[in-house]
Write a structure and sequence with these properties.
The chain has 5 helices and 16 strands. It is of the alpha+beta class and 287 residues long. It folds into 2 domains: 137 residues, Alpha-Beta Plaits (2-Layer Sandwich), CATH 3.30.70; 87 residues, OB fold (Dihydrolipoamide Acetyltransferase, E2P) (Beta Barrel). Strands 4-5-1-9-10 form a 5-stranded antiparallel sheet. α1 packs across α2 and α2 crosses α3. The mean pLDDT is 85.
């Protein structure tokens, strides 16, 4: 017995002019992204790393029902029903794809806006994503979003394909949308590109480090510090200093000495991998 999911794809823009034909490179990018998202989700369901020949009868993708105008067609996901119970919350491949997209967008949008994000298990096969925002008067607003637990493992597998899909938007493609008859779907347009770009931000979580200032630029009180503590990976990092303590004597007295500091990490976040990397620190206080 097979399970069918029918998803309608619409691609609009100058490159999708029916009178001239559909520009193939844009069409192939969108279809390839859909194919990879579907295949990787199926492989996650059956706990495999690649699609074997023996699986060819259990999973397939088709395209049909081409319509006039901007490129519009139906994409059909066919999967033998034995794999369905392997995904928590009983979601289908398409349901899982749209859930993961929303999960990635929630996290990346929060980081784009400088908000703090934490994830924790809440039981019953679910996780809670808490997005915290501090106001100028010290008030903290926390919004919680619930997702199936599987998104933590599946999202890094799908993130590169989502990023590739979003970055196929340019002056020739205005929007790409995917929608199923049960109302599940998503669309990407120019406003989503920034969400899926790499971003740098200053963490609001204070840490204490041990380090030695190796380079000091006295004109702006920036430089490099060799960090030798476990709070962040060992290595040499760029630093700057909180404005309130920006004076030369403060830093000059610390040159070439291993000291303790309070600081905020500077983070690079890559939505295509969902990975964060510390790239520097902002010093708050010398301890």
């Amino acid at each position: 017995m097979s399970e069918l999911s029918k998803v309608t794809i619409r691609i609009s823009g100058k490159a999708m002019d029916e009178s001239k034909g559909y520009e193939l490179k844009y069409l192939l990018k969108s279809l390839d992204s859909f194919s990879k998202l579907s295949e990787k989700t199926y492989l996650h369901m059956i706990s495999e790393d690649r699609l074997k020949k023996s699986e060819s009868g259990n999973f397939a993708l088709y395209i049909d029902n081409f319509q006039h105008g901007s490129f519009l067609a139906d994409l059909v996901i066919v999967m033998n029903s034995y794999a369905l119970p392997l995904l928590e919350h009983g979601q289908t491949i398409w349901g899982a794809i749209t859930t993961v997209y929303d999960f990635i967008k929630t996290i990346s949008s929060a980081k784009e806006e400088g908000k703090s994000v934490s994830i924790e298990n809440v039981g019953d096969g679910s996780i809670a994503v808490a997005v915290s925002d501090s106001s100028s008067v010290g008030d903290i607003t926390i919004n919680n979003y619930l997702y199936p637990e599987y998104v933590r493992e599946l999202s890094p597998k799908l993130a590169p394909s989502f990023s590739k899909l979003v970055h196929s938007i340019d002056e020739n493609i205005d929007e790409i949308s995917f929608n199923s008859s049960d109302g599940r779907g998503f669309k990407v347009s120019e406003k989503d590109i920034k969400i899926f770009d790499k971003k740098e931000f200053l963490s609001s979580e204070e840490i204490q480090i041990s380090g030695t200032i190796t380079v000091l630029n006295t004109h702006d009180n920036t430089g490099k510090i060799q960090i030798e503590s476990n709070e962040i990976p060992l290595g040499e990092y760029k630093f700057d200093v909180q404005k309130q303590i920006r004076y030369p004597e403060y830093l000059s007295s610390a040159m070439r000495k291993k000291l303790r500091y309070r600081c905020y990490p500077k983070i690079n976040f890559d939505p295509s991998t969902l990975k964060e990397k510390v790239i520097g620190v902002r010093i708050i206080e010398k301890l």
